[in-house]
Write a structure and sequence with these properties.
By secondary structure, this protein is mainly beta. It has 2 domains: 2-82, no CATH class; 162-275, no CATH class. Helix content is 7%, strand content 36%. It contains 3 helices and 30 strands. The chain has a 4-stranded antiparallel beta sheet with strand order 1-2-3-4. Strands 5-6-7-8 form a 4-stranded antiparallel beta sheet, with no helix packed on it. The longest helix is centred in the N-terminal third of the chain and has 11 residues, at 2-12. The radius of gyration is 26 Å and the shape is elongated. It starts with a helix and ends with a strand. It comes from Sphingobacterium spiritivorum. InterPro entries: DKNYY. Pfam families: DKNYY. This is DKNYY family. Residues 1-22 form the signal peptide.
């Protein structure tokens, strides 16, 4: 009883006449509230700045499952909206993933994702992860949380990858590979390159040494440097390294014939000042 009173006081405090008092339904979520006999989704309890959604849910059977997910006797709700594709009877949450007996689902409510619907209800409808097996589908641990896998496929940003499952591996933030191909991990896609990997050394999140003789760097585009001697490598920064008597910055040769790789140092990371004995 004390908790319910406290939740009510929090939702009403300092808001004056801007809000009708709403009672937080469950400590699991600060987003679902009972107000005037109806269930609302109010992000953080702040409807003035963040809006509210009347769920239409049955208040007597309403149950909060996570910060944004809830259910009543008939529907599964996400951010206040009933989910139309989900099999209600078999739905479950597993490690933050939305699953039922047939599918894995994901929210497409991201402003940067292509095809984002303009209507809030449509925007908050879950999409099916194509070809995913719900029983074995898991997200990879940080820092590789953009990837997932099940018993037979890898996925990147909820899309299945056409890779060799048995040999595919994540090299670093920028690169991945299987026995046949080196891939670039772009913002939303994993794209194949022309390179066939035999040996890969990850030097930073953005550099790899491929087959002992090819230095590759990727941020927004791929750059390549051919290397004669890869035995002496000094990594100075995620974007800066010395190799084969060369200084490489952002994948490119830095002042060829001027910069001395053996003494090259970074003075200030934020302003990119460098020095060497020359």
């Amino acid at each position: 009883m004390f908790k319910k009173i406290l939740y009510t006081l929090i939702s009403c405090s300092q808001l004056g006449i801007l809000f009708s008092c709403a009672e937080q339904i469950d400590a699991v979520s600060e987003n679902y509230y009972l107000k005037s006999g109806k269930i609302y989704y109010i992000p953080g309890g702040n409807s003035f700045e963040r809006g509210s959604v009347e769920t239409g849910a049955d208040k007597n059977t309403f149950q909060v499952l996570s910060a944004d997910v809830a259910k009543d006797k008939a529907h599964i709700y996400y951010k206040g909206y009933a989910q139309k594709q989900v099999d209600y009877s078999s739905f479950y949450l597993e490690d933050g993933l939305f699953k039922d007996k047939d599918h894995v689902y994901y929210s497409k409510n991201y402003s940067t994702e292509p095809g984002r619907p303009g209507n809030p209800e449509d925007r908050n409808q879950w999409n099916i992860v194509r070809l995913a097996d719900p029983k074995t589908y898991t997200h990879q641990a940080a820092p590789n949380q953009q990837w997932a896998k099940d018993k037979s496929r890898y996925f990147y940003n909820n899309e299945p990858l056409d890779v060799d499952y048995a040999t595919y591996s994540i090299i670093n933030k920028s690169f991945s590979a299987d026995k046949n191909t080196l891939y670039i991990n772009e913002n939303r896609l994993v794209n194949p390159t022309k390179y066939v990997p035999k040996d890969i050394d990850s030097l930073t999140d953005r550099y790899i040494l491929l087959n002992h003789n090819t230095l590759l760097f990727y941020v927004s585009h791929l750059t390549e440097q051919q290397i004669q001697n890869s035995k002496d490598i000094r990594v100075l920064h995620n974007n800066v390294l010395c190799i084969d008597n060369k200084v490489i910055v952002d994948g490119n040769l830095f002042h060829p014939n001027e910069a001395d790789a053996s003494s090259f140092e970074i003075l200030f990371i934020s302003t990119s000042f460098f020095c060497c004995k020359r």
